[in-house]
């Protein structure tokens, strides 16, 4: 799916995006965001850049778990950002979370200005992954941290087969019904299948200039957090 269609898809599903994620992950998305927030290593007063911020659920979790940090969220979807702005205002977090429209391939952020870059379930939608990872390195301070949360598959063979049945035959029709589209969650399955293997993506992170690259499984490997650091 090209960039224009991906953007149009997120514009279309923004109104129900959070409900879909909650239902289809059986509420595991809440725990995954908590783990991501707790893995962040940044000093008090630090800035986290959340790319593909969407409706700002990750940004809010970071603020809840890490009271000394602020978050700048960037997303290419105006509809997602509108939902995010409303939620941030309703929860009194406007002073700690700022949202702006932008492209992950050319971030509207100064070089060497943020402590951590996060992206959750977004990088698989971008063809130029290494270029985007290099852009993350550009905006990071020396020693800064990159954290990429993405979908994957369980390592256990039995769980892998069971999850594939759910992922291939249950998730697409239910997700498409919830989102009122006929393609959004069919695309999700296709995009997860097309994402590189763990070793291949870790190699892409290293190619982009990150060190100490590793991966942490969440819920038997259904989701994963890839992480690395900028030298310095």
What does this molecule look like?
The protein has 232 residues and is α/β, with parallel strands linked by helices. The protein has a single domain, classed as Rossmann fold (3-Layer(aba) Sandwich). It has helices spanning 3-13, 17-24, 28-39, 57-65, 78-90, 129-139, 157-179, 184-194, 198-207, and strands spanning 47-51, 70-75, 97-101, 114-120, 140-151, 210-218, 223-230. The chain has a seven-stranded mixed beta sheet, with helices on both faces. Helix 2 (17-24) packs antiparallel against helix 7 (157-179). The mean pLDDT is 92.
Outline:
With 232 residues, this protein is α/β, with parallel strands linked by helices.
How large, in whole angstroms, is the Cα Rg? 17 Å
Alpha plus pi helix count: 9
Largest beta sheet, briefly?
7 strands, mixed
The order of strands across the largest sheet is 3-2-1-4-5-7-6
CATH homolog superfamily: Vaccinia Virus protein VP39
Number of beta-strand segments: 7
Average pLDDT taken over every residue: 92
Gross geometry: globular
Low-confidence stretches: none
CATH topology: Rossmann fold
Report, as a whole number of angstroms, the end-to-end distance: 37 Å
Helical residue percent?
40-55%
- Share in β-strands: 15-25%
H/E element string? Answer: HHHEHEHEEHEHHHEE
Question: How many discrete domains?
Answer: 1
CATH class: Alpha Beta
SS class: alpha/beta
């Amino acid at each position: 799916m090209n960039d224009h269609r991906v953007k149009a898809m997120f514009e279309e599903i923004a109104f129900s995006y959070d409900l879909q994620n909650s239902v289809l992950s059986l509420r595991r998305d809440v725990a995954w965001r908590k783990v991501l927030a707790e893995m962040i290593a940044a000093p008090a007063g630090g800035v986290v850049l959340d790319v593909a911020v969407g409706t700002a659920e990750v940004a809010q979790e970071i603020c809840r778990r890490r009271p000394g940090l602020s978050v700048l969220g960037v997303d290419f979807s105006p509809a997602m950002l509108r939902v995010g702005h409303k939620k941030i205002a309703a929860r009194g977090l406007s002073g700690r979370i700022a949202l702006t429209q932008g492209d992950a391939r050319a971030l509207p952020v100064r070089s060497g200005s943020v402590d951590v870059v996060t992206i959750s379930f977004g990088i698989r939608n971008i063809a130029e992954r290494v270029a985007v990872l290099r852009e993350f390195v550009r905006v990071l301070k020396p020693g800064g941290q990159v954290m990429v949360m993405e979908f994957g598959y369980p390592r256990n063979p039995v769980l892998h087969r069971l999850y594939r049945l759910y992922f291939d035959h249950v998730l697409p029709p239910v997700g498409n019904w919830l989102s009122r589209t006929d393609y959004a969650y069919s695309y999700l399955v296709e995009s997860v299948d097309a994402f590189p293997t763990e070793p291949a993506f870790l190699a892409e992170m290293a190619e982009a200039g990150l060190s100490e690259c590793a991966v942490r499984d969440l819920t038997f490997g259904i989701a994963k957090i890839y992480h690395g650091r900028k030298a310095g």
